[in-house]
Amino acid sequence: MKVYHGLESFVKRNNAVVTTGTFDGVHIGHRTILKRLLEITRKNKGESVLLTFYPHPRMVLNPDSDLQLINSIEEKTILLKKAGIDHLIIHPFTKDFSRTTSLEFVRDILVNQIGTKKLVIGYDHHFGRNREGSFEHLKEFGPLYGFEVEEIPAQDIDDVNVSSTKIRNALLAGDILTANHYLGHRFSLSGKVVKGIQLGRTLGFPTANIAVSSKYKIIPADGVYAVKVTINKIPYDGMLNIGIRPSIEGSTNKTIEVHILDFKKDIYGDELELNFIQRIRDEKKFNSKEDLINELKKDRVKVEKILQ
After folding, report:
1. Can you give the pTM of this predicted structure?
2. Fewest CB atoms less than 10 Å from the CB: which of 140, 170, 174, 183?
3. What is the mean pLDDT of residues 13-17?
């Protein structure tokens, strides 16, 4: 997959099969679109092109929004590469760009800059200034500018329409099972291991404190989680805590710290990836160090059982 940081670096194709959108999460609804995109590409011997935007449009149009994203742009790029896309265009979204009319978007960008011959979009897709463009507009523009358009129906699981918003809400509630079900893959966090107060060592559960790489990345609800930890491409089992550690007097800052099972290496400064499997419990305040240690031992048993 070739990646282009801006439309100006993309060279127009003769037979481009295109989709466009934010694709946050690259969830199963998105994968339905991508699957169809690739089917059409193979059938027509074309090249698949995905046009997405960064920052997320809502962050530009509503700067006071507290929107957090399922994927960093790096994570999204990796997922789209795995999906098999030929070309990924990541175009900067600005207030000036937001004023592009639906006609200008189709004529100047999709047709003149990309070379769209087939366009595949998701259900209820809108584009252009004030989201004025719709599937109906595209059906009108298609014959004028020489491309065909296909709309993919809403993706449903158990009669629930899948969306990035519903996945974000599940993560904020700590409902990892639902989030992963809708994503079609495990939700992940990546970051660098930084120095903490090293309390875990005194409890017999040393932890790696994680500084998340992306400031816009959504963080699941406070609590204890069973996770898979990847360090230098090697997977390990882990027990993760997200929260303010209420059992520690004066602790108010939220931390993300993982106890890697049966692991004793020094990994300060290393990058690691956390893949979330299941939430174990809420974060709780304990009356004594002994009570906390006993609970951690119980947590470990649960984590080991889940990760077997």
Report:
1. 0.90
2. 140
3. 97
